[in-house]
Specification:
The complex is a heterotrimer of chains A (168), B (336) and C (750). Helix content of chain B is 29%, strand content 21%. With 336 residues, chain B is an alpha+beta fold. A 5-stranded antiparallel beta sheet of chain B has the order 4-5-8-6-7. Chain B has a 4-stranded antiparallel beta sheet with strand order 9-10-11-12, sandwiched between helices. In chain B, strands 1-3-2 form a 3-stranded parallel beta sheet, covered by helices on one side. In chain B, a hairpin with a 7-residue loop joins strand 9 and strand 10. Chain B is globular, with a radius of gyration of 19 Å. In chain B, 62% of the residues are buried. Chain C has 750 residues and is α+β, with helices and mostly antiparallel strands. In chain C, a hairpin with a 4-residue loop joins strand 28 and strand 29. Chain C has a 7-stranded mixed beta sheet. In chain C, strands 14-13-12-7-31 form a 5-stranded mixed beta sheet, with helices on both faces. Chain C is globular.
């Protein structure tokens, strides 16, 4: 009665609509499934990483309607109707997004596990438009922990893209 | 995470109805509730998704500003009216959490976030807040981050929000709705001290919903600051924070209010210290005297005596910054 | 540059800056980690952890969990299948002496966080939910987790850990020399317990292949260790087990030993004859190895000008109640400085925790921290410049083993680092430098790590299209191994990097050791080079045998492999393309293997070490205790650098972790509960982006012959000494000497 869109499906699931990396999908999700688990476990989009599952590391960062959030703390059912972009959908076509290319060029990662979250976070940060200086970028990117310690290279890569105007 | 029903009402009235009875919770940003559910600290049998309710506006009200419960922390922090009229609030919000979390977390949720006490979060240990009557191992345990003001023998946890510390200094009012209609709660009365009921963080009733946080019609010009001290330079909860606003007439303090974060079960204010400041010259001596009034009430735990001195110094610095109008920048971590 | 790999005497790739070959896979999300491989009908395991630190399980009720639809099985000590009996079978390649932990073995609780049940379900969400319904009753006993209280019970480990040098026998008479010394520094030092916290939580996916065969994707720093462990514990034939781990989301030592999620996943897969994945939570990442708590005392006796007359370094390290973990903590004090009277001791004391484990530069981070703060104290006492003091006592040989260094370019590190940092303008007086309200401090320290090499295999396959595939079973843990092996292979055979593919992390490949100890570049690098050299020989033989060969009557020694051709040195127009050789001889594939290991003769004669000089600037708001590390220069002497880009990243990462060690990282134990309480990334603080400002890395020239490539390794050296340099900078800024790290706000205020 109270649910506007979606209706109870089999086995406690609720039907929702999501656009994921440009592709419209209808999915049956349990209300306790997080957006992160939906991506990783159900849709095999394992590019989005689970580092802490509690919003304390940023590895799970995705863009929801263009806004960066921690997908581990978002229940999928609540994102009904939203458009999700993950690391797999950052690039247009077969090549790399300019930021992905800059990350490779500046060696802005080592093990690579925080990298998808760093990339989505940086794209979201550039859209927000509040960080310009190196200091502001450092602060704005502090929600993404890199245990390998690639921070200076991450800031170099982001600045490179911001200065070349290739963002978006 | 336990099993639960999920409902998504469209109106406040339906939301209040949906949360009544049983062990239901409202959910919006989810940044704390989902976190706690994964630790089995919260085990609601129903989640009421309020994200579709019409509580997402920042609008003028009674000469002040009314911030809808669903407005995200990011939206508040970068809202032109907030930045213009209540920059302290923007500064406090940006001192907390991360960009991602602020994009999801809402105003109402921030008010109702729960303590970061290690023991509260860890279901393997006793905790009076999580399991009333089970005990408080933080007392005499690992309590470096715990409260020094207003503690009780049952609980020494702190309230973790930065935003609320700013709202406390700004004398905000919380507008709520329940089965009996709407009411307002002055910010100082919104959060509780633990007493012998540490399981209750706030005076919001279980079947009430936060509609908005309303800021009064006041101007402080540049005389405000949010000073946050923590164990790393970003993305950490406050050991001690200070939100201060001040009205100056020449070099004299006409009035000043300040609230402390990280030191009590609620944003901590001291009426005596604020009263002391009124009419005094805006000098280090005045600020130190006010700080001494505050810390006289401090009762530290086994590992957090440093917080008393840190609080004293933070108050002096916070008031000094407010007086000269140099808010702490969150990107350049130098403290002015 | 010396030690060129290419037969022409110049390398195209080795020694240059190259982007990671695995970069595109990592930035597009295509790189798959252990918990991300799938299988038909995959079941999901969720671990239930003990809430007590010591005692027994008196009852375990799994009925509510088993009643949840979707739950397949709940494994506990009461119903677990049988596994091997002897400790020997559980001892992995780097296990310390003792009885390795066995999950679900019996009712005994050894430490808080110990796994007590595994809930296996059709999906992850159900497993997690059902795990919360498992009810465990305990008879708890008071745990012992406070090392300070165990000081009197400390003992010398009766059995030494393989690969870990015990302290050397003392030389001279350190006690008397100390008593006689006009200048004395004697202090206690302590570094908080740290957890590795790689970003990827530990995970194992076991794919049931039928007929008792399994394929395992395991978070491990070298699949051979997992392979041997599974064979030992489960009595499986190695041929029935294949282990892979192409990418590792950070290890820092936590992935050296197979962890309990592997044991549980294999146990469940075999019991259910079904594929099973077990992933630990972030909180469970605090339920196994960690950098141990060590009580240290360093006593230095010196003459008035700072010449060391006595060095004593005593350490008591925590270990578990089931294994004698050991690392090299004190030996560095006998290697780094030249002193005639040295006594070094290392003891253990047992705690009711899991066994500590190697964490980036194990032992050296801890021991060198103490030594290098003590040296700064001595510099201050004697009025010496910290660099001058170190030069005054510079060791020309390793007196712990009585051998000359294979090479030691630490002087160049001091010189180049100091110049880059601007050290000469430092006012030595503490509290003398300011920037506005902040105190400014400049501190420095030396770092050292042993350069090691392990027995390693490699394989190389060249196909008719001119494409080369090389590889072995070691892992790329983010260090850049894929990239440097590609560079080495390409240069050895004169191919383009684009034509070379490196495969790692698969037991079907040539066996190689764990990626750890900074030995991978030397070990796997040399093995790959030799495999490619073998290919070169085969190619040359084929080429010379061709009719009208341009290489007829040319000796192999004169052959140059360059730009896809085999040519004659001195007359490179004379030659033939490699693809033409293969085509003309009708060769589809050429295969070769290579192996490398330490050179026993060289090892006997020389002591190989990497060195560093770390310079740090801090700015401190003294009133509020806020410390910012605004500038770091790390000058490294590590022999030949294969890839300037990935090498620099290794040092950056070490420095960042060193800053964390100095200022933030601390696993806090509740001694009543025997439990680490801040078991998450919100309250266990590692550096975030805002904490890290400018870091400058210098590689000084250093020629070394400890291995054929002259490589010394880079994984550890960046962290060693960094924490001491920060602490010394804090002293210079504030005049306050802090000997218990991390240096948090309370300690600056205190």
């Amino acid at each position: 009665m109270l649910i506007e869109s979606g209706s109870p499906g089999p086995a406690n699931t609720i039907a929702i609509s999501l656009t994921i990396n440009g592709q419209a999908r209808t999915l049956d999700v349990a209300p306790w499934t997080t957006l992160l688990d939906l991506l990783r476990e159900d849709l095999d989009l394992t590019g989005t990483k689970k580092g802490c599952d509690h919003g304390q590391c940023g590895a799970c960062t995705v863009l929801v309607d263009g806004v960066r959030i921690n997908s581990c703390l978002a229940l999928a059912v609540m994102k009904d109707g939203a458009s999700i972009t993950t690391v797999e959908g950052l690039a247009e076509g077969a090549g790399l997004h300019p930021l992905q290319a800059a990350f490779v060029e500046h060696d802005a990662f080592q093990c690579g596990y925080c990298t998808p979250g760093q990339l989505c976070s940086a794209v979201g940060m550039m859209t927000e438009g509040h960080a310009q200086s190196r200091e502001e970028i450092r602060e704005a990117m502090s929600g993404n922990i890199c245990r390998c310690g690639a921070y200076t290279n991450i800031v170099d890569a982001i600045q490179d893209v911001m200065q070349s105007g290739a963002a978006k | 995470m336990n099993r639960f029903d999920y409902v998504r009402p469209q109106t406040v009235a339906d939301a209040v109805k949906a949360v009544a009875g049983g062990n239901a919770r409202f959910i919006a940003g989810g940044t704390n509730l989902v976190d706690l559910m994964k630790y089995n600290v919260e085990q609601p049998d129903r989640l009421v998704d309020i994200t579709r309710l019409p509580l997402n506006a920042i609008e003028a009200r009674d000469g002040g500003l009314s911030i809808g419960a669903l407005v995200t922390n990011s939206t508040v922090a970068y809202d032109a009216q907030v930045v213009e009229r209540y920059p302290l609030l923007a500064s406090a919000i940006l001192a907390g959490a991360s960009g991602q979390l602020r994009n999801a977390a809402t105003t109402g949720g921030n008010l109702n976030q729960r303590t970061r006490c290690y023991y509260f979060y860890d279901e393997a240990t006793p905790c009076n807040k999580r399991l009333p009557g089970s005990g408080c191992p933080a007392i005499g345990g690992v309590n470096r981050i715990h409260a020094i003001f207003g503690t009780s023998p049952s609980c020494i946890a702190t309230h973790p929000s930065d935003m609320c510390v700013g709202l406390a200094a700004l004398d905000a009012v919380v507008r709520v709705a329940g089965p009996e209609g709407e009411r307002t709660i002055p910010f100082a009365e919104y959060h509780r001290l633990p007493g012998d009921m540490p399981e209750r963080d706030t005076n919001l009733k279980p079947d009430e919903i936060v509609l908005s946080v309303d800021l009064p019609d006041e101007e402080f010009g540049p005389h405000h600051t949010y000073l946050k001290l923590r164990d790393r330079l970003s993305y950490a909860f406050a050991l001690v924070s200070v939100a201060a606003v001040m009205r100056l007439e020449g070099d004299t303090i006409a009035s000043a209010r300040f609230a402390l974060g990280g030191v009590a079960h609620k944003p901590w204010r001291d009426g005596d210290a604020e009263a002391f400041l009124a009419g005094k010259p805006a000098t280090q001596e005045t600020f130190a005297a006010a700080a001494n009034i505050v810390v006289a009430a401090a009762r530290p735990q086994s590992e957090n005596a440093f917080k008393v001195e840190l609080t004293r110094r933070a108050i002096v610095r916070g008031l000094s910054q407010a007086a000269v109008g140099t808010p702490q920048s969150q990107s350049d971590k130098r403290i002015a | 540059m010396a030690n060129s790999i290419n037969s022409s005497g110049t390398d195209t790739y080795v020694g240059t800056a190259r982007s990671r070959v695995d970069g595109p896979a990592k930035v597009t999300g295509q790189a798959k980690y252990a918990g991300e491989f799938s299988a038909p009908d995959l079941a999901h395991g969720y671990v239930v952890s003990s809430g007590i630190a010591r005692g027994r399980i008196t009852a375990i009720d799994t009925s509510a969990a088993e009643a949840v639809p979707g739950v397949i099985k709940v494994l506990t000590h009461e119903n677990r299948p049988r596994t091997a009996w002897l400790d020997y079978n559980y001892q992995d390649a780097v296990a310390p002496p003792g009885s390795p932990f066995r999950a679900l073995y019996d009712d005994k609780i050894h430490y808080s966080g110990q796994p007590v049940a595994l809930v296996v379900s059709e999906d992850f969400g159900t497993a997690r939910h059902a795990a919360s319904l498992v009810k465990v009753a305990y008879a708890a006993e008071a745990p012992t987790t406070d090392l300070s209280a165990q000081r009197e019970l400390a003992y010398e480990p009766p059995k030494k850990r393989s690969g870990i040098k015990p302290p050397p026998a003392p030389w001279g008479d350190a006690a008397t020399a100390y008593d006689d010394a006009p200048i004395k520094v004697s202090q206690d030092y302590r570094l908080a317990v740290e957890h590795h916290n790689p970003m990827e939580p530990h995970a194992s996916t076991v794919v049931w292949e039928g007929d008792g065969k399994i394929t395992v994707y395991d978070k491990i720093q070298g699949v051979a260790n997992t392979h041997g462990y599974i064979a030992g514990v489960f009595g499986m034939k190695k041929d029935d087990v294949r282990v892979l781990n192409p990418y590792l989301g950070g290890g820092f030592g936590s992935g050296l030993r197979p962890q309990y999620q592997l044991f549980l996943a294999v146990l469940a897969a075999r019991a259910l004859e079904r594929s099973v994945r077990v992933v630990l939570t972030r909180d469970q990442m605090f339920s196994f190895g960690y950098r141990p708590d060590v009580l240290q005392t360093v006593s230095l006796g010196a003459d008035a000008s700072g010449g060391l007359q006595s060095i004593r370094h005593d350490a008591i390290s925590g270990t578990s109640n089931f294994e004698d973990y050991q690392e090299v903590v004190v030996n560095w004090s006998g290697v780094l400085y030249d002193c005639d009277n040295v006594a070094l001791t290392y003891k253990l004391a047992q705690l009711d925790t899991y066994t500590p484990s190697d964490m980036r530069a194990p032992g050296a981070v801890t021991g060198v921290m103490a030594l290098e703060i003590a040296m700064d104290e001595l510099a201050h006492e004697t009025g010496q410049d910290p660099i001058a003091l170190r030069l005054r006592n510079y060791s020309e040989s390793d007196r712990t083993e009585g051998k000359p260094f294979s090479s030691k370019s630490l002087r160049a590190c001091f010189e180049e680092g100091a110049t880059r940092f601007g050290w000469s303008t430092r006012n030595p007086e503490p509290r003398s430098m300011r920037d506005g309200r902040e105190l400014v401090g400049w501190g420095m320290a030396t770092g050292i790590w042993e350069s090691m090499m392990q027995q390693s295999g490699a394989q190389a396959t060249l196909t008719a299209d001119g494409k080369l595939v090389v590889g072995n079973s070691t892992g790329d843990i983010g260090t850049g191994t894929y990239t440097i092996l590609t560079q080495i292979a390409a240069d050895t055979l004169g191919l383009r990097m684009e034509d070379v593919t490196t495969k790692l992390g698969d037991t079907d490949l040539a066996e190689a050791p764990l990626a750890g100890g900074s030995w991978t570049a030397a070990s796997s690098g040399t093995a790959v080079m030799r495999a490619c050299q073998d290919l070169a020989g085969q190619l040359f033989a084929l080429a010379r045998g061709l009719d009208d060969s341009p290489l007829a009557n040319v000796d192999f020694e004169r052959a140059v492999f360059k730009e896809g051709r085999i040519a004659v040195a001195g007359d490179e127009t004379r030659g033939i393309a490699i693809t033409d050789v293969l085509r003309a001889t009708g060769t589809d594939t050429l295969e070769a293997t290579g192996s490398a290991g330490p050179d026993a003769a060289h090892q006997k004669a020389f002591a190989p070490y990497t060195h560093s000089a770390v310079f740090v600037e801090v700015k401190i708001d003294e009133d509020l205790g806020v410390v910012r590390v605004t500038r770091v220069v790390s000058a490294i002497a590590a022999g030949k650098i294969i890839n300037l880009k990935t090498a620099r990243s290794q040092i950056l990462g070490g420095v960042v972790m060193g800053i964390g060690s100095a200022l933030e990282e601390e696993s806090m134990l509740d001694h009543t509960l025997g439990r680490f309480m801040n078991h998450n990334l919100g309250e266990y603080h590692v550096p975030v982006n805002a904490d890290i400002h400018d870091i400058d890395v210098i590689f000084v020239d250093e020629e070394d012959k400890a291995n054929p490539m002259g490589v010394k390794g880079l994984g550890e050296i960046g962290i060693v000494g960094t924490a001491a340099a920060v602490a010394n900078a804090v002293f210079h800024a504030t005049g306050k000497r802090i000997r218990e790290l991390p240096i948090t706000i309370d300690k600056i205020l205190g």
